Amino acid sequence: MTEPDTSDRAVREAGELRRLHPLSWLFTVGGVLRQLLLPILAYLLLGQRDSEWSVWLIGPMAVYALWAVLRTRSFSYQVLGSELLVREGLLDRTQRHIPFARIHNISQQSQFVHRLFGVTVLRLDSAAGGKPEAVMRVLGLAEAARLEGILRGRRGVEPPTAASAELPDASDQAAADPGAPRLLLSMPVREIVLLGLTTNGGLLLVSAIFGAVMPNDQARRLLGQWLGAPARALGRLFIDDLKDQRWLHLLLIGFSALLTVLLLMRLLSVALAVLRYHGFRLELQGERLLALHGLSTRVRAGARLPRLQRWELSASWLQRRIGRCRLAVSVAGDTAHQDREGLGPVGQFSELAPLATPAQAQGLLKLCLPGLDWPQLRWQRLGPRSLRRLLYGQWRLLLPAGLLLLVLSLVLDWALPWPLLLAGLAALMALGLAYARAWVGFAAYALTDDALVFRSGVFTQRWVIVALPRLQSLRFWSNGLDRQLGLVHLQADIQGGPMLHRALDIPCLDRAQAEQLRQRLWCEG
Amino acid sequence: METESPSSLSSPSPSPSPPVRLDMLPELGRYWRLKYALLLALPGAALLLLHLLLSLRRSASDRPLLLAIGLALLALGALAGWFYGTRRHALYRAELRAGEGVVLYSGVWWRSEVWVPMARLQHLDVSQGPLDRRWAMASLSLHTAGSHDHHTRIDGLPQALAHSLRERLLPRQRGEHD
Question: How far apart are alpha carbons A181 and A193 in whole angstroms?
């Protein structure tokens, strides 16, 4: 694997038919088996009768395993000139010609089991996004590196710097030549622990587990058995205290229970962060960014610089206290919907820096957007009408609800006395006012020659940066309240990015400001 | 990338031609009025059906309240739907900005304007349902590469206009796309 000339080697190997790693079928079957493992274990080990159905599935599983072996045997690929020919399918055969120029992204993911066998999943993405162009599960490590080298070496001809095409094992050699990867950011263990401490990964995981467990009958019962005893003991303690009116003791117990849960969550977050980001390295190779991270599942995700569409710099309250921020990025074609056959969202290139100092983040931004001069940005604030819009928006929900409660408490003679209700309502409104003032105080946008920056947020502050030539369509949105105040919401769309929200969403913008922005943003490029 | 004068906020060319409002067929308004009237009359119709079913088992005269509420809901729903359809049609319009793109205004309470630049169009289709064919009406769909508002549909265009618009907006030769 150390021939010096990539193109020469490629020519020699052109037309050679290659197949997947001989153990590929194991992973295909393993994926299905994992779903069945819990019920089968529950039946065999715990003797739960209602898992009996799983045993009947062993027969079909064997057939499926045979099928998987045959199917992975039928998958083959071939390098033909400047395109990759992929053949797959047993009964319905598919031949796909993938020109190298159309492959915009190559990523690798190897889970712990993959690494045991020395294999990896290679995924090729085209510009279309959504379904990957080809997923090779699984290839041997050397073979994956060879293929990636061929695919990338060919495409890197246009830029002059990439004349010395990247060899697959160039990272091991001396970093003297310009094609060698340049390290942009690496995260030591301390940073990863900090990342875990300042994020809510643990809470998210616990809620995800609850979401997965609750619909499943026997998993719920199992969880109940584990959690039942301590929860009951704690409950009994509470009830005893209530009966004996030992308020201080009750307070202490409640407080320490809360603290324990919070601490456990943080520890879980740290563990998750270490699992996911251990050994995080961001490298630049020509115009290609490469992120490597992961402890048990090793991910190599890449993206080319011109494909980056949107950057999001965010800093939560805790992260601001320790002087850190996060820089996320959206790549064209990476729609965040999970697809089972590909790598899923974990393997996508979504973060330039999970946690970095503001100076590091600025350095990375400068690399992506050389025209962006951060200290010179002229921030334009939202008008005073935006504050009124936010307040009216809160009141239209709060006031009717409060009024209803008040009337009910007066008419029905409820337990809640009306002064308490009024005080609660006033407190909520004061909190709302403080929040709205803080939001409007920070929210602002700035326009440069080729980018629009919008900052907002109260607890977690975000700076969303979109490149103007990347904007697709614009959308102005308003409801009756907005129109009364002469406001409009400006939304912009880009290729790829998260499905949950739009790439850019500036709420409560003055109509005149919006019109000015529209003239600049629309028909750009 | 652009290397133009950094200070100018306004667009470089001073608005080449005024926007042209696209003709819409009045049948679209008729269709929407009927559609929303029928849709909003459904709860009343359901109550009336319930009354009918109940009265099959007993004498018809012992549930006058149900009958009255059902009739009132039916009338109110149909009226509200009719009004909504009229409003929606009145506010629905599309503009063609020569050389720049298409703007679609829609919505009654939650109003939206979608600005689709011509340079970002990926492909266009003209589609017709059975009623559309009867009225020689067509919908023009504009597709961009975006992930949220990638599909914008303009309803109620005369068929000939829809086709000629598609010809005009069709992406011509495209440069290297990255």
Answer: 26
N- to C-terminal Cα separation, chain A: 44
CA–CA dist B104, B100 (Å, integer): 13
What amino acid is encoded at B145 in this protein? A
The three-state DSSP-derived secondary structure of A106-141 is EEEEECHHHHHHCEEEEEEEECCCCCCCEEEEEEEH
Which of B3, B100, B149 shows the shortest C-beta gap to A493?
B149
Phi and psi based region of residue A129 (left: phi greater than 0; alpha: psi -120 to 50; beta: remaining): left
Q: State the Cα–Cα distance between residues A299 and A287, nearest whole angstrom.
A: 20
ipTM value, please give it. Answer: 0.82
Question: For A260-305, how does the pLDDT look when each residue is reduced to its tens digit (9 = 90+)?
Answer: 988 998 999 999 899 889 889 999 988 888 888 888 878 888 888 8
Residue A160: Cβ within 10 Å count: 7
- Whole-model pTM: value is 0.76
Q: For A195, phi and psi rounded to 5 degrees?
A: -60, -45
A99 touches chain B (CB under 8 A): no
Which one of A332, A516, A525 has the shortest CB-CB distance to B119?
A525
- Lowest mean pLDDT across A38-52, A58-72, A454-468: A38-52
Tens digit of each residue's pLDDT (9 = 90 or more) over A99-114: 887 777 788 888 878 8
User: Residues near B57 by Cβ (< 8 Å), separated by ≥ 6?
Assistant: none
Q: Does B62 touch chain A (CB under 8 A)?
A: no
Q: How far apart are CA A360 and CA A438, in angstroms?
A: 27
Neighbours of A408 (CB within 10 A): 13
